Amino acid sequence: MSGMDESVGLGRTEPRDKPAGQSRLAEALAWLIGLVAVSALVGYWSLNGPAPSPLETLVVSMIVVLPVVCGLLLVRAQTGNAVGWLLLAEGLVMALMALSDQPSHDAIEQGSSATFAEQLAVLCSQSLWPLMFAGFAGIAYVFPDGGFFNRKYRRWGLAGAGAVTVFLAFELFAPSGFEPPYQDVPSPLAVAPFAAPDVILWMLLLTGLASLFAAAFAVRARLKASTGDRRLQMLWLAWAAIWIPATLFLCLLDGIVFGAGGGEGLLTQIALLLMATMMPLAIGIGILRYRLFDIEVVISRTLVYGTLSLIVAAVYAAIVAAFAALFGSATAAGVLGAGAVAVMVQPVHARLQRRVDRWIFGDRSDPYAALQRLDDRLKETQAPEEAVQAVVESVAESLRLPWSAVEFDRDGEGMTIAAYGARGGGTLERRELWHRGEHVGSLVVEVPKARPLSESDRRLLDQLAGHVGAAVQSVRLTIDLLASRKELVTAREEERRRLRRDLHDGVGPSLAAMSLQLEVLRERVSEEDEALVDQLGAQAQEAIVDIRRLVYELRPPALDQYGLVSGLSEQARRMSSEATAFSVRAPEEMPALPAAIEVAVYRIALEAMTNAARHSGASSCEVNISVEGPVSLTVEDDGVGIDTTAAHGVGLRSMRERTDELGGAFAVGVRNSGGTTLRAEFPLEET
Length: 687
What we know:
Beta-Lactamase; 21 helices; 4-stranded antiparallel β-sheet; alpha+beta
């Protein structure tokens, strides 16, 4: 997840790194908001007391306390995450709305003589109601990392926020009075020169309503695109959202069946209490402890039993009402309704369970679909490692498992060639992989303890594992081939370094000495033999030139003459001009590098510097060499940048090939501040 480090225990999200001063200031502000909200709640308690409805007092308390507590915990863990601040704002708004309840009722009796505090209470209760929905709508847009999913939903979210802000400005400062029954209470902030036309207010309200629907679609889009731990977090938000329609249904049922109105019915109060409790808790757990429970099981049971209860209640009520209307016997209608419900519960439950499991747990109940999806992915892949990655992804997604991987032994050590998801606290299931009777590796998956694999799940896992053996064998052969090529390149460069040293230090001086001896001999021979001596001397000089050319071609002479860092620094000095300044940074004490890596770093750096001088138009270019872990070469300039979509030229291809043949990694792209950055890494063999 973006900007977060996640541990594997309960899915704990570590706090983002922030400057200490900013974090303390942010936490102080969060505590201040929480203190104001709690103080307003205490004011509500003192003005209303527990009577006449203790349950209503409990509901109001939960609506304020839980968002504030969860918001404080989130701000403390992730200061820069907007979700925590939105929860705090939601708790503060609900506290102010609760605090204004009793004074606004008192203002009705006072009328025009209402105090300033009572006027503010009426203004708050009548104008701030859009903010009751804004907090959770904003959370839907930015959950779980505090950022928008993409630019489209960012525009919708900002449009909704802007519409709410303008609407509140019109409502707070409108010169007209309040709606009945507060028409006699003057507004304390009626300073606007004119009232907003109704058409503008309706447009603002419709924009805010459209933004609420867009928030739901943003959650759906993020959930569809999420995998691994991010999907678990989004499922917590989805479970929180389930309580919104559930609460609306219970309130509607309370009004239709029991005739309760104005939110005063017992069923309505219970529904509001559940929503006020579950939503903030689910949001907080979804970010801080998303592995606390198996959320997939929780959602499955919530949807299955919630929908089943709804269907049973609706069928029972319909049968009882119809039978009582036709035959006038309430007792017989109840017996008939109970019998019908008893007959339909089991088949309806089974069908609901299958559909919900298909949505939450994937292709467990449909192995053909899982195999077909895997087959489609394998057809789209080209490299063997891509095929193995497609397999582990398909296994995890089809069985809705948090982690899967393919492993094999190489040189007596375990090696993971493909993995998907993140490890948690579940148990491991292992399937051995075979190809033409040869054991080539293992498919390993993690199964949550709360949701073990059934026999059908294990059969599906066996079928999926059967498609991995050939791809794993191809990857094994590819890895062996790359290792052999690396060994050959390394041996070649080491031999070239030895040959260059022998030619430069052995054969070269011998030929030079022979040439000097021929010069001495030329003075002592007769004129008839002088031509022969001159011929031998010319041949010796030609041999010296050829050996020098061979020495230079075997290995860059600057590496042996100056060393890697000094050689590059000398090249940077020569290439620097008024237009472009080149510089080299490296550790003060460079360790002895393998000949192949030394040559590759030198040639790649030189090629990158040449490209920067010719094509970038940069004013500065810096070469940075690091030997902490792998040998890392970074070349950055502040020029016009590089078109990453265009075909690479010979130089870039050559640099990539030099890196690949040593088992390294090569990347080139555009710097955030402008210009081009090139990076090559070479692994060092442990000795």
